Every structure is written in C-alpha cells, then in structure tokens.
Amino acid sequence: MSRMPGSASIATAASWLRDTRVEMSRDKVDVAKRVVDAYNRRDVDGLFAELATPDFEWYPGIVRALDGGGYCGREGAEQFAADTSENWAELQIIAEEFRDLGDRALVLGRLKGRGKGSGVPVEQPFATVLDFRGDRICRSRVFLDRAEGLRAAGLSE
Q1: Residue 59, Cβ neighbours under 10 Å: how many?
Q2: pLDDT tens digit string along 65-89?
Q3: What is the pLDDT of residues 40-56, one digit of tens each?
Q4: Residue 42 φ/ψ region, left for φ over 0, alpha for ψ in the -120 to 50 degree band, beta for the rest
Q5: What is the domain class of 7-152 according to CATH?
Q6: Which pTM does this prediction carry?
C-alpha cells in the first residue's frame, strides 16, 4: 500500500488544530467558572493570583444601575467585597450558562441574595461579559437585563 508523502503529518496537524480549538474554548469557560466561584467565596487573593489581570475592571450590575461606576484593580475588588458584606447578608451568582466568545466569555444566570438590614430575599436575572487579555480576565461587566448583556456581547436572544 502506498502512502502519499506527508499525509500522516497533515492528519496529525489537523487533529492538533481541532483539539486546540476545543481546548481554547474550554479554557475560557473554565476561567469564567472559576471567576464565578471566586466571586461567590469573595476570594480576592485567588482572583488576582490566577484569574484576573492586575488592572482588572469590575462593573457590577447594581453599581452600574445606580451610577454607572465600577471597581478597578485589587484595591477595587477588596472594596467591592467590603461593600457587598456591608449591604448583603448573602449574595451569590447562580450561573446557568457559559458561552465562549473568543476573546470574551458570557455568563448567564441569576443573582440571589438577601438584604442585610431588611432580610428581604432578592433574585435577579443577569448576564456578565468577561473580557480577556491572554488567559486572564481584564474586565467584567454585569447586566441586570439579559438582553442588554447579550447586546454588549454582540449577540441577540
């Protein structure tokens, strides 16, 4: 049986490219899942050690809705954690869907919490767009309106 020169290397290269695309896709989703976990644990150390750039910008949905502001860097993330514990008895992300968008990831789900002073339970749909620089997130934008979050990610319902 005769073989065409280089056919094995072409097949190997094609297999490597196919596997690499799958692996890259999984990596962004994996990072997004780990970011959600770090958020729910208020793990600022883990966020900056493994997942976020030093100049990471975080625009939480509630803050964006109130004044359009956000938090920057480690100091900002620590301030967000302090602000959250001051106002919320509990506040968690319930992630329901992750999408790899190339240099971004999209997280869809619900914010679930209970006010610290009032004890009132809150549940709110959300969308988060995570922008990447290399394999780390450099910006997170949370939208309390799913359609707005999808538009920000360049998608539609």
Answers
A1: 18
A2: 566 678 999 999 999 888 888 888 9
A3: 999 999 999 999 999 99
A4: left
A5: alpha beta
A6: 0.78
